[in-house]
User: What shape does this take?
Amino acid sequence: MTHTEIEITAEMVRDLLRDQHPDLADRPVRLGARGWDNQLWRLGDDLAVRLPWATQSADALLRKEHAWLPALAPHLPLPVPVPQRLGEPSERFPRPWIVTTWVPGEPADRAPATRAAEAADALADFLTALHRRAPTGAPAGRDRGGPLAEYAEGFARMLAEATEMGLIPDPDAVRAVWEDAAAAPDWVGPALWLHGDLHPANVLTADGTFCGVIDFGDLFAGDPACDLAAAWILLPDGAADRFHGAYQPNPDAATLRRARGWAVLKALVCILIGEAGVHGRPGGKATWGPPAHAALRRLVETVRRPEAAETRQDQKQDPPGQTVPNGNIT
Assistant: This one.
């Protein structure tokens, strides 16, 4: 992360609005959050301004959201931050920025879902609606979404780093989950719309269940297994099976194996970011650690259950064809 040299203040946000969207400039402005890529400033009660501040890639991600998310949002059963206005680079602020709707709720890294059945159904309904065939020209993934074998080096590096820090009690069990996932047949269906970054800080909760999904900067078309990893990353213990039963069509065995691999990668990333936050290092977020450790424990349990070995052996017999969400079979 490289923080912008420009200090973003409420007055600067208000000046940007006066310059480019003066009809919004009189609304109250207050800081909402400082995220990984962007700062979020509340604009009245129902809008927000997002400005890139910590990564160079944030500019393209904001433009991608502005281009694609408005058409997807009406079909989604959970609220999402729908882009309303685009701010162009200027002398006052040399990067693009957007105005979106505000989605109320508490990030799940701070307030995890506790109502297992309701949360599993809400997540399944959301991903069933999102995972539709993407059009020609849809964006590709940013360092995610391809065959898992392409990420073997990154997995090994992160596992070794976390193990050396004493953060992984049983690295062999984690490696077993990954190896099974990497050996699964690749996705051969059409590229589907994916959120691409479903970790706890990007999903909102209220009353113990999910009430919104934010940060679509990584929106892309690809293998649904990348998003289905959320069953282990976001849900309480024991809720994954209900999620898989509610998601339509039910994911086949190979897709579930790949999803576990994506979940392992996400959990390791969040464990390392969480540890950095505990020690006050740049880019660290201490609240990311506990849900990531819980996710890794759940994933390891999937290979420790007595029936797991038989299940994996059965899965190795699966044909390479995949069940494609929204009814397409290939």
Remarks:
- DSSP finds eleven helices and twelve strands in the chain.
- The first strand starts at residue 29 and ends at 34.
- Residues 2 and 56 are 8 Å apart (CA to CA).
- Confidence is low (pLDDT under 50) at residues 306-330.
